[in-house]
Q: What sequence folds into this?
């Protein structure tokens, strides 16, 4: 993968810059505000589906916040080979909701956490360990398309949130659409027509204004805050463990999706600096995905992975500082120790969050488009790859029922838009002659070291 530095956006703070503490705190809170609702929503959805008590549900939410924070800090600062030293915010992805719900309801949460513990470490650990070998198969054309599809398939989710949330009795009500529009309007206006700290915190200000409006109209329920305790301690094996083949294989597929998403999100973040991630960054980021997911499962947390909307914030604000994201990670971890504080944050209405996610999803897709345009010649070959990959990815995203005749495992695998887009782009790019194919038209410095052509080319 190229590491060219042309085409970067104007950065307010670069990777290793340290903004003043107050500004870092506010920028970190902005990252937390954008991701905390979907991260905790996964826990609420699964807990409701398997019939957990309010206390057990609150505990899972607590663990999701705690391990999201720990994984975010590790991504920013690293622990040995684990971590990318990039501004990657981690959280629980909706990728795992379907499997966790169905397996949890039929086989119990012990089977879910047992499968996560095994699959996270094995699948993403192996991919990260061997990423240097498989890197040529993921040029900017492939990773850029993964970034694009991540952004595009998040847009319907953002619209659902903007309408009040799927299944809500007031779905599509005027007050929900109005709140989402208010957040979107304030965020865009501040970003485009102001400067300094106001522009940098435009998304946070938009969410704050939307939340204040929701409170004023009586749309916020503070009951969960009163019911939550102030402090709770993590408990290893809180729901037990069961190691069953089908759940393990299912989650192995989903961790492959998670790895694809992480590769795409990391590419989206570094695209702000006009480059793609290095081997070390990819390897450390994938290690974090797998290892922290496995460790979290031991305490009752669902898998953690990179959050695309936060990659969008980096591109939207021009703040690439990993120290800002480190602050966000500490905040998340602290929330994980205090269910009451976490409950207060999750009172943000879905519609308020939807306005912010809609903006971030669009920015993620746009950063993927830029990644493709910067490093790819859009000739006939590459246009076909782009068209087929996005067509199939959006196809299964918008019409998942089209695959209902497939076996369950195949339906789970091919029904994921990221997998469908990534595999299509991977196969077509690999097997079709072209400069980004690892099998054809290799650059001279990619020729095996023991080949006589290396010496010849180095003498020219």
A:
């Amino acid at each position: 993968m190229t590491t060219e530095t042309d085409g970067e956006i104007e950065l307010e703070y670069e990777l290793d810059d340290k903004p003043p503490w107050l500004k870092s705190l506010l920028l970190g809170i902005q990252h937390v505000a954008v991701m905390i609702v979907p991260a905790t929503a996964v826990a609420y959805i699964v807990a409701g589906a398997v019939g957990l008590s309010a206390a057990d549900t609150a505990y899972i939410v607590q663990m999701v916040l705690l391990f999201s924070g720990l994984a975010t800090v590790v991504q920013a600062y690293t622990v040995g080979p684990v971590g990318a030293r990039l501004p990657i915010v981690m959280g629980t992805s909706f990728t795992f909701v379907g499997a966790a719900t169905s397996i949890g309801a039929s086989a119990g949460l012990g089977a879910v956490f047992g499968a996560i513990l095994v699959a996270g470490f094995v699948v993403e650990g192996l991919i990260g360990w061997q990423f240097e070998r498989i890197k040529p198969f993921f040029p900017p054309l492939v990773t850029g398309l993964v970034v694009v599809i991540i952004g595009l398939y998040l847009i319907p989710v953002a619209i659902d949130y903007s309408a009040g949330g799927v299944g809500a009795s007031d779905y599509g009500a005027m007050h929900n659409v109005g709140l989402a529009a208010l957040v979107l309007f304030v965020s865009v206006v501040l970003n485009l027509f102001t400067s300094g700290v106001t522009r940098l915190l435009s998304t946070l200000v938009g969410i704050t204004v939307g939340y204040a409006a929701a409170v004023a109209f009586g749309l916020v329920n503070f009951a969960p805050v009163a019911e939550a305790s102030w402090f709770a301690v993590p408990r290893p094996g809180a729901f037990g463990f069961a190691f069953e083949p089908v759940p393990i294989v299912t989650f192995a597929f989903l961790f492959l999706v998670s790895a694809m998403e992480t590769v795409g999100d990391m590419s989206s973040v570094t695209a702000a600096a006009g480059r793609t991630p290095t081997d070390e960054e990819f390897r450390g980021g994938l290690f974090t995905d797998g290892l922290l997911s496995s460790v979290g499962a031991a305490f009752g947390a669902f898998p953690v992975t990179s959050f695309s909307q936060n990659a969008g914030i980096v591109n939207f604000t021009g703040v690439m500082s990993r120290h800002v994201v480190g602050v966000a990670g500490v905040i998340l971890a602290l929330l994980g120790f205090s269910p009451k504080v976490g409950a207060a944050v999750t009172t943000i209405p879905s519609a308020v969050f939807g306005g912010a996610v809609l903006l971030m999803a669009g920015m993620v897709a746009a950063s993927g488009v830029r990644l493709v345009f910067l490093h790819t010649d859009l000739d006939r070959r590459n246009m076909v790859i782009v068209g087929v990959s996005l067509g199939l990815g959006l196809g299964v995203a918008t019409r998942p029922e089209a695959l209902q005749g497939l076996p369950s495992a195949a339906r789970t695998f091919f029904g994921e838009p990221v997998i469908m887009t990534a595999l299509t782009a991977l196969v077509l790019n690999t097997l079709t002659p072209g400069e980004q194919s690892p099998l054809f038209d290799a650059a001279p410095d990619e020729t095996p070291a023991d080949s006589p052509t290396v010496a010849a080319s180095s003498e020219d």
